[in-house]
Amino acid sequence: MSEFQNTTREIELLIPELDQSDPDISVVVPALNESVNIREFVSWAIEGINAVGVSGEVLIVDSSVDDTATLARDAGARVLRVPRRGLGRAYIDALPYIRGKLVIMGDADCTYDFRILSPFFQKHEEGYDFIMGSRFRGTIERGSMPIHHRYLGTPLTTWILNRIFSTRFSDIHCGMRAISTTGLRRLNLQCQSWEYASEMVIKASRLSMAIAEVPVSFYRDRNGRVSHHRRSGWFSPFSAAWQNLRAMFVFGADLIVKWPSRLLTLWGTMLCFSLSFGPISFAAVTFSVFWQLFGALTLLVGVNLSMLGRALQPLVDPLFETPSESEGRKSYNQLMILAFATGCMGVLAMSPLVWLYLSKGLRLSNVPDWPQHLAISGFICICLAFMTFAHAVSKEVAISIVSRLKASVAS
Q1: What letter would DSSP give residue 323?
Q2: Which has the closest alpha carbon to 201: 135, 257, 259, 131?
């Protein structure tokens, strides 16, 4: 095999002199101007593979302008030279070139100890698809993580992700992780930069993959190397955190609104419709028309969030199954019937106030409380009817888009 192989016009694959023909493990790591530590990293990875006792390859995804690629190739790694930068982009570009059954990811700066790979391989052998490293369950060398990363940023974003997706990760930003090659293809990564890390965790959870965590060691920068965050300026870590939060909001859009919509809908329904026939007093507190209006607004927001989440589910839930044509038609018809019935109830509830308005010469003076309260409930029913109609249509559109995308992928 030639030392240098052109695979496309843009991506180039460099082959080392001693190349594994059928590896079981692929250590796949992006590199950007890592000439200071790349040779040591490759030697660590090869040592880790040998310690596991299986065949393996080291694949460096390089977008450097220095001699990182040559140094890595000479140290025994395959090097995939790619024109576009970005951590997520690197794994997207590397996927067609990965030959092992298990992919172990990380950083090429020797901050993660790739001499110890057996915990990942053992978990994979036990049947786990996705194995996350955890610095908090392992060891963190003094000075390796800034204080705001260790005690604020990482714990906070991990807590947020766990709350949204009902997971139990301890360190979602740990760069050292492993996944079966089949599982990596199933993830269909889209994010180009730092947020790929959260995308992986979210999609693995939503796909119900078998997930485990193993402790890892995290070291500070070696040999005078300066991390990419520090090279990019003080704002870089905050930008990365915001990108990861964005990934959570996008890939969990339907789940984020789940509980807020339920609570708002329940509270709004109780407050609005319990006052449909007039004010209610409890001790010294009287719930009047203003409370009903507040409940009505709360109910509309809650229902709108719920419908938004249901409409987004076909687009963001990887396990969403497109309904058959008959099921889709049945669901659409049911929603339309519900919208019509709710609208009719609203019209009936508003009728007494409209009749009084017309009979009094288009005035509402000296009108009892109950027609006014009932009219508010009726108006809310009419609003809900229009929202249900819009939801039925938008849901059909979302399902149609997903169906077309699946058909195009299949073809």
Answers
A1: P
A2: 131
